[in-house]
Amino acid sequence: MAGEAKRVASAAGLRVPFGERDGVLYSPAAVDGGLACGCRCPGCGRALLAKKGSSQRWHFAHFQGGGDDHCYETAVHQMAKQVLLAARQLELPTWARIANLSDLDHQLHQEALERPARRWHYTQAREEEWMLDMRPDVVLEDEHPTTVPLLVEVKVSHAVGREKAGLVRQRGWAMIEIDLSKLDADAVLDDTFERVVLCEAPRFWIHSPTAERMFAQVQAKVERQVAERNAEILAERAQRDAERRSAEAKRDADRERKERFRQKLRGPHLCDLEALTELSSPVAAREQLARLAERDAPAIDLARRRYLDGAPLPPFLTHVPTGWQLIDAHPHLWQLMLWGQFVRGQPVGTRLKPAKWVPHLGRMVGFNASLKRLFDAQQQDWQQARARGFRRPYPYSAWFFEDWENELIPSPFDLIGELAENLWAASLMELQDRGVYEVVGTEPNLAAFETERRVQTTPPPLPMPPEPTSQRHERLLGEERVRLEARGEPYHVCVICEMPFPAGNRCGCGTSLQPQIVRPPSYPR
Length: 525
What we know:
The protein has a 5-stranded mixed β-sheet with strand order 9-10-11-12-13. Strands 14-16-15 form a 3-stranded antiparallel β-sheet. A 3-stranded antiparallel β-sheet has the order 18-17-19, covered by helices on one side. By secondary structure, the protein is α+β, with helices and mostly antiparallel strands. It is rod-shaped and about 155 Å long. Helix 6 (270-280) packs across helix 10 (369-387), helix 7 packs parallel to helix 8 and helix 8 packs across helix 9 (357-364). Helices cover 41% and strands 16% of the residues.
C-alpha cells in the first residue's frame, strides 16, 4: 500500500496524480493496475498507466511518456471540484478585521470583529456556472433562501485576481479561495486529499457580505465613539481657550490698573525726575561742580585752616564720589567737615557709625531738594515693601520708578560709605561690624593714594596755565578714543559720562547701565 512505500515523491515531481475515466477522476488505489485502469490524463487526454508496485507509491504515468505541469494542475483542480460537488459540508475560514480611528488628540480608538472558522453544511453544488461574466469553480448553496450562494475558487497555481475580487465585492457575493498550491505527495496521492480540500488546506475570504455588514456596524460604533470624544475635546479646548482669554484679560486689566496706579504715584515726582535727568548729564554735572567749587572756595579754605592748619587737602578727602549732586556743597567741603568733626582727634579704639552722619550732613550743608525727595520716596517705598513681607534687598528703590531712574537717584548712605572706605584705605578706621568702624590711627597712611611715578630723564617742562575743566574733559575723551581705536577692537562708551573704556571693563562713574558698543575701522598692524 501507499503507506508502506519507502520512496518519497514531491507533488511538484508528479505528472498526473489522478486519472479520468467516463468523466470521473480516480486515485490509483481506486482502479486496476496498468492499462486496465482505462484512465486518461485530465490535462492532455492521453492514456495513463496505473502503477501499483510494492516498492514505490502508487501513481499514474503517461503510457507513452510525456506530461507537464499543466497535467498536474488540471488534475488537482478538477479533483478538488469533484470533492466539493460530492461533499455536503465545508470548513469556512476565519474572518477578522480591526476598526480603528484616531481622535483630535491623536488617540487611537479600535474594536476588533472576528468570526471564527466554522463547519458549513450545504445542499447544492454547481460546477463553473456563469454568473454575470464570471464563472467560479464551484457555487454552493444551503437550504436557507436568505443565504447568498458561496463561490469557491481553487488555487493551484493562479490566485483570484484583483479585478475578479473587486467585481465580487461590488456585486455583494460571498467567495472563498482554497489554496492547494503547496500540497505534498501524501496529500495528493493518499486518501487525505478530500480532508485537505474540505478542512485542512489554507483558505481565506475574498468577500463575506455578512461579515462586512457586521464590520460596518462596528466601524460605525467606533466612528460614533470618536465623534463623541472629538466633541468633548473641542469643548475642553474651547473651555481652555475661554479660561486663557479670561486670564489674559485679567492680567491685562491688572497691568493697566497697576500702570495707572504707578503713574499716579509718579505724578508728584515728575518734576524731580526731570531734574534728576538734567543733573545726571555730564555737561550739567561739570558745570554744577565748577559752580560749587567757585561758591564753596572760601568755606573750604576756612575748614582747611580749622582742621588742617591751612595745609592742602589729603588724598582721602579729594575723592569725588558717584552721586555727589545730592549734597548742596562741593565734595571737598563736606568730606573735610565730616572728617574734621567725627574722626579727627578721636582716640584709638573709638567706635563710629558713619550712617549716623547723614542728619549732620543735612544740617551742615543741606541736600539738593529734588534729589532728596526722590531718595526719600525710594526709602519710604522700600521700607513699606519690607513691612508687608517683601524682602527687597538694599539699595533703596521704589517700584514706581524705572530701573534706570532708581540707578541714578543718589543715596547719602552710599556717599558716606565711600568716605568711610577712603578713611579705611588711609588706615584711620577699620570695619569691625556691619556699619560699625573703629578708629585705629591718628596719622593717615597715604601710600594707597600715591600713583606710580616715573623717573624723569629730562628737565620738567615749564608750567602751563591751567586748562579749563570743560576743555580738559573733551581732550581726555578724544585721547582715550584715539588710543582705543588704535587697537582695532570694539570698545564701550558710557551712556552717563560719555567716557570710552575697554570692552569687558566698567566705567569709573559706577553706573551699571548697559554701555554703547563702538566698532572702529580696522587698522593695519
